[in-house]
Structure formats: C-alpha cells, structure tokens
Design brief:
It contains eleven helices and eight strands. It is α/β, with parallel strands linked by helices and about 250 residues long. The protein has a single domain, classed as Aldolase class I (TIM Barrel). Strands 7-6-5-4-3-2-1-8 form an eight-stranded parallel beta sheet. It is globular, with a radius of gyration of 17 Å. The structure holds phosphoenolpyruvate. The site of phosphoenolpyruvate (PEP) has 15 residues, from β8.
Length: about 250
C-alpha cells in the first residue's frame, strides 16, 4: 500500500503578508492531516519565510526549481541543491510543463536536474504530461515514454525509489479542466507499467501524483484510483481550506 503524497506548487504567487495568512491557516488546519504526506513548494525567495511561519511537522518544504550545477559557483540567478537543502527543502519540482514550455527546458536538462537533486538527497517531483495536441494526435504514450526514458537513462530504474512522478496533462493545468479519474488512471497505469518492465518492485512502490485543476470537489475520486497516489496542486494550494481538504481527501 503506497502512502498518499500531496504537494502544493505555489508557482510565482505570494507576498510576506499573503504567505503569513496562508501559513496561519495551514498551521491551524494541519491537525486534520492523517497519514497523507504533505509538502508545500513556495517561490524560492519565500522558502525561508514559509519555514519560519510553519508550526507543524505535518507539512514538509519543497522548491519549484533547482540549478543543474551541483556545486556553488558563477551561475548568476541560480539556486543550488545544497542551498535548498540548507533551508530544509526535502523535495523539488523538476520538469514542470511551465518550465518546459516557457523556459525551454529539455528532457536532457531535466534529467541533469534530477541527477543533481538525488545527489543532494532531495526528492525530485518529476513532472511529465502531454499537451492537448499531442493527446489528440494519438501521441500520449510516446510523449510520456520519451519524458520518462530521459530520466531512466540518466539515473537508472532503481533511482525511482527516490523519485516522485507527477502526471500533469498540460491541458488540465490551471485551466479548470481536470482529466477524468478514468483518463488519469489510464495514464498512471501506463507510467507504472513502463517502469514495471524494468523493475516491478520499484514500479509498485513509486508514488505517482496527479496534477491539473485538482480541487476539494474532485480530489476524492481521483485519489481513489488504484494508481493515483496523491496530487501536485497549483491554484488550490494557495487557499488553506482547499489545500487541507485535498490533503485529507484520500483518508
Ligand atoms: C500545477 O501547477 O502543477 C498545477 C497542477 O496547477 P493547477 O492545480 O492550478 O492546475
């Protein structure tokens, strides 16, 4: 039985005032969290502030991005894995579709970031997912396999014991359109099946989150699917009541 894992991706949202407000709500409601693992990923500059506001050990910290380069150096504007670790980050989102589409991150760069995170002892939350055009052209499985294979080639299948996968159909992110629970389950089973070909035990254990307009109203049904092990939550993670309702939806 896999433990559910829900992570909040705050994206580039927040101010000291709004984060204080959100954290106050999360601290208050955190007592409702049961066995589900929970993490929040604030913008890098607010990670320390969010940690200072955090008054519960039920919520872990993560980051939204990481430098490829494993060590400190002349990399203007970047944040290293060791720096994130120094500020208590246990997780880092890697390969989010916004970073792929807006910042042109390639599978190879994403794979290098996964290598760097693993070396530093930070768990990557590796995002994979297809655009609507790719789905409609019948290329869903090819796209997901290509994204996954780039990582498998870089770190090997056994490393997936220390990697969380987030299946995020690009057409469902921030659009209010959720994949139906059946559509999501189908892709999650495909991902697990791809890993199982290489190592069935690792595939059975790997956490595969669903992401894309998850809300309190649809989380329960999504998380009840056999291969959906929680969610990566964007918009709804900015509201304490909604986020905690999602974090407790599978319990
Ligand atoms: C995300 O940012 O990863 C995401 C899934 O966003 P939203 O929940 O807002 O669709």
């Amino acid at each position: 039985m896999r433990q559910l894992f829900v992570a909040g991706n705050w994206k580039m949202h927040g101010s000291k005032a709004s984060i204080m407000n959100l954290m106050t709500g999360l601290n208050k409601k955190s007592a409702e969290i049961g066995a589900t693992k929970v993490a929040i990923c604030p913008p890098t500059i607010y990670i320390d502030y969010a940690q200072k506001c955090l008054a519960t050990d039920k919520i872990a910290l993560g980051a939204q991005n990481i430098a490829i380069e494993p060590v400190q150096g002349a990399f203007t504007g970047e944040t290293s894995a060791e720096m994130l670790k120094d500020f208590g980050c246990q997780y880092v989102v890697i390969g989010h579709s916004e970073r792929r589409a807006i910042y042109g991150e390639t599978d190879s760069e994403i794979a290098q970031k996964v290598v760097t995170a693993l070396k530093a002892g930070i768990t990557p939350i590796l995002c994979v997912g297809e655009t609507l055009e790719e789905r409609e052209a019948g290329n869903l499985e090819k796209v997901i396999s290509t994204q996954l294979n780039a990582i498998i080639q870089a770190v090997g299948i056994d490393a997936f014991e220390r990697i969380v996968i987030a299946y995020e159909p690009v057409w469902a992110i921030g659009t209010g359109k959720t994949a139906s629970s059946a559509q999501a389950q189908e892709v999650h089973a495909f991902i697990r099946g791809q890993l199982a070909v290489l190592n069935a035990a690792v595939a059975e254990k790997v956490i595969i989150q669903y992401g894309g307009s998850v809300k309190p109203g649809n989380a329960k049904e999504l998380f009840a699917q056999p291969d959906i092990d929680g969610g990566l939550i964007g918009g709804a993670s900015l509201n304490a009541d909604d986020f905690i309702a999602i974090c407790t939806a599978g319990e």
